[in-house]
Amino acid sequence: MRILLTSSEAVPFAKVGGLADVVGSLPKALRKQDVDARVIIPGYGHIDHLKYNISHLFKFDFYHRQGKTEINLYTCIYDDVPFYLVQAWPYFGQEGDVYTEWTWDMERFIFFNQAVMGTIWELNQRLDWFPDVLHVNDWHTSLLPFLVGMQRHEAPWSDLATVISIHNIAYQGNHAGWFMFQAGVDNRFQPDLIYQNLTDNLLGIGIAYSDMVSTVSPRYADEIKYPYAGYELAGLIQTRVPDLQGILNGLDTDLWNPETDPKLVENFNVDNFETKRPVNKRHLQSFARLPIRQDVPIIGIVSRLATQKGFDLALPALRNVLSSRDVQFVVLGTGEKDLEYAFWRLDNDFPDKARAFLQFDAALAQQVYAGCDIFLMPSHFEPCGMGQMMAMRYGALPLVRETGGLADTVDNYDNGDGEFGTGFVFQWQQASAVEGTLHWALDTYRDRPDVWRKMQIRGMSKDFSWVKSANEYLAMYQRAKNKLM
């Protein structure tokens, strides 16, 4: 089977969030199962062509409503996966960031959808390669199922199945009507889109026209059927329930491996972590200029600092806990300015207990996973989440809210002898719930070290690899193909 994944992000070339990790890792897992999986993304200006041995493949003229644009297609092989990068002035090729301002992103990503159609055609003509399934991701590429549908009256488009993955339904690419009109995109007459006034919503268009719809965790697939999580697209999701599937994201276990991770000062595994992991904790404390004490638990956060992540709940809870308990706290991330300021205040108000690194630092992120004891993810909603899985793999116990992928991956401590559980889970979206659960986790760390060790072993031993998820994607691809027969 030939699969073409397309996205606005893919590791290692362009990463803003977890979307990039999925699109970078899933095709690698698929190819290990003899699937011809390839990826096409925009060729952003900041991508280092020399570093990744990227070469020019071919160019072609693409005609559209606003004129003629020369498209240059570049390619490379990374981790055995063929990647294609689309450059076309002025849309892609000179920018320093993945995303810019809203109006320009609307125009350039609608163009990218059209350019992918042209590129698929050229790949077929020049290399005799045409996908069986086109797998699009989030709103940036969700116009493609509609564009494919408009060509299904003729071969080879009639045999091309489409699948859309929703990584975060809160970002929809709505109010895109004028931009689609400018680009010459045909009107959308799908009844559910018209009835629910969604003909100008890019993600909605992708959901309506795809052969199959997936989300990045089973729990999130259930949650988005209702307005509290699905927003204005909940009704549309309800119409696609027979074709909706939640598939949990996997981890690239070759990359995220504490036994081989070069960013750690001491590597460890599930058999020797009791003696070797503390070296990483001491290093984290030293780097954060905190007292080096093995007996003091460290609460860690590595995240985009956004309200969605529940930090409005966590901040008052952390302030109370830091005031009343013998505990340390380290946060790494950037995001909303009011949250950055609030974490900076914690750093300043508790200089011997808290440290805020308001930056992006991939190496420090690994060291936080490997050095903290409690990893805090109090999200209001979380489609899947990768941080809690990385934390468990690196020996930290996650403290999470029961939502989305967090509920699917973290088993709540049984508050007994530790025969069940990999972390601490709360339900209510209240600061008091975060604070109470933090006290529960801190008491367990202090009073029940054997229980803590059991949960660490269980978390480090959980299989978060892509093998199972890749098989589920393969089955979904086949269901999409079967719908065309």
Structural class by SSE content: alpha/beta
The main pleated sheet reads as: 9 strands, mixed
Query: Regarding CATH, which class of the largest domain?
Result: Alpha Beta
In CATH, the homologous superfamily of the largest domain goes by the name: Glycogen Phosphorylase B
Estimate the global geometry from the Cα principal axes.
Answer: globular
- Please estimate the helix content: 40-55%
Cα radius of gyration in angstroms: 23 Å
Distance between the termini: 16 Å
* Overall pLDDT score: 96
Low-confidence stretches: none
Q: Number of domains in the coordinates?
A: 2
The counted number of beta strands is 15
CATH topology name of the largest domain:
Rossmann fold
Secondary structure tally, helices: 18
State the strand order across the main sheet.
3-4-5-2-1-6-7-8-9
Plain-language structure description:
With 485 residues, the chain is an alpha/beta fold. The protein folds into two domains: 2-250 and 466-482, Rossmann fold (3-Layer(aba) Sandwich); 273-461, 3-Layer(aba) Sandwich (Rossmann fold), CATH 3.40.50. It contains 18 helices and 15 strands. It has helices at 18-31, 102-127, 144-149, 177-183, 191-195, 202-209, 218-223, 227-230, 234-239, 273-287, 311-324, 337-349, 362-371, 387-393, 404-409, 431-447, 449-461, 466-482; strands at residues 2-6, 36-42, 55-64, 67-78, 81-87, 133-137, 161-166, 212-215, 244-246, 298-302, 328-332, 354-357, 374-377, 397-401, 424-426. The strands form two sheets. Strands 3-4-5-2-1-6-7-8-9 form a nine-stranded mixed beta sheet, sandwiched between helices. Helix 15 (404-409) links the parallel strand 14 and strand 15 (424-426). Helix 1 (18-31) crosses helix 18 and helix 10 packs across helix 13 (362-371). The two termini are 16 Å apart. The mean pLDDT is 96.
